[in-house]
Design a protein that fits this description.
By secondary structure, this protein is an alpha/beta fold. 45% of the residues lie in helices and 14% in strands. Helix 5 packs parallel to helix 6. It starts with a strand and ends with a helix.
Length: 186
Amino acid sequence: STVGGASGLAISEAILACPDDAIDLTGARCVLVVEKDTFFQHLLQGGLLAMLPLVLVTGRGYPDVLTRRLLQRLHRTAPHLPQVYLGDYDPDGAAIFFLYRASCPWLRWLGLLETDTRGVPVEASLPLTSRDRALQKTLLSRSDVTENARYVAHVAAMERKVELEALHAIYGAEDVGLKFVPERIL
């Protein structure tokens, strides 16, 4: 979904077909791509957009082609506007980031990173499953990961799953959208 104001729109072919001048990005500071719809909704309702004008997008997990085409369109329309990704600190969150990057190479990995998870209580995280470990190993063998030492370090450091919602344990439900996200973007 994309956001303008305090409501969301489903991404459709019709939105992607509109003329470039119909896309108003005036005042937007960045495009924030979030992994999960629940976190997207939390940010929508938490006042983030009133504090920090941005375009908020979610692919609801692994993104479909329309979501990636929207990011490409936004980049063509406003190449100066940074696009950043915020997802769970686990191999799936990383894999989703790399799926976006395959068609949107300008996308930056905002988080979650290992440093973001340091204050998360152990009970707010989960151990990696054998499937997670297999995905982590696969990611660490991919050229789009191994070509960047930071990506290798981020993926290799994943010892536990920390979902975006676990940030509530550190920041509180209100301050995730009003402090954590703006501090990371600004």
